[in-house]
Amino acid sequence: MSFVIFTDTSANLTSELVDRYSLRVIPFSYFIDGKEYTSEDPSEFDGREFYDRMREGVMPTTSQINPQRYIDYMEPVLAEGHDVLYVGMSSGISGSFASSKIAAAHLMSQYPERKIRLVDTLGASMGEGLHVLRAAQLREEGRSIDETEAAVRAYRNRLYQVFTVDDLMHLKRSGRLSGIGAAIGTALGIKPLLKGNEHGKIVNFATVRGRRKSIKAMADKYASLAVRPATQTIAIAHADCPEDAAYLAELIMAHTPPEEIITVCYEPVTGSHVGPGTLALFFEGGEGVRLK
After folding, report:
1. Average pLDDT value for residue range 7-12
2. N or C end of the chain: smaller count of CB under 10 Å?
3. Which pTM does this prediction carry?
4. Which CATH superfamily is domain 3-28+65-156 in?
5. Any idea which fold 159-291 has?
6. pLDDT for 179 beyond 50
């Protein structure tokens, strides 16, 4: 293996994908009633139970992980003589990427002969995970760590991330959306359409009336913006609304089927910010698609 690929649990990758591509995953933490949890093994996460608890009023919280956690996971790999590529969660919604930079600076001073490369995906959930999979596939093709880093950085400008939520209160509570944006959709069945912008921040760019129309609007974005869809792997993430995820996949397949659709339940760290009922779609568009 020419280099080791690290990511974090926010990438929302299944255990099968982590194992298939020999990925290393750094756990992020969430807290319920003051107790710390991680979700290192995705197969053990019960999405229905977690989001039901949120529906009942439990409010999980998260915190920026410190540089030492990155050091603890990466240092043994460097000591074994491997280079490291870390593909991480958006700096636009979390300070954890800043911690990875502090950790990398420390580790580079200790292992000057090794390469440590960091990529801020400007995404979360599968908006991060698809970058990780792209890196893994490039490594399998024999690309170097520098070639892979450059390709993944270019890919992030082409990855479109659109989603809708049942209640903007969760994003407002965690500071991931402005108060003005969070006022939308509180009455009359108005549903927001949100996206990750070019800075990796969450913005509300449109509203529609009704859940089904919001899902169709997401499928329409795929129809109008996806490039070479027949050769793409796209992703859908849901926060305990599998029927809506299936409906979105059905709409996409009825238009131009991609090569593969990966469907996952939102992992708990990102899920605690977006809330139950969130539905997201991730696909590749043209250069600058994040501006659209």
Report:
1. 97
2. N
3. 0.94
4. Dihydroxyacetone kinase; domain 1 (3.40.50.10440)
5. Hypothetical Protein Tm841; Chain: A;domain 3 (3.30.1180)
6. no
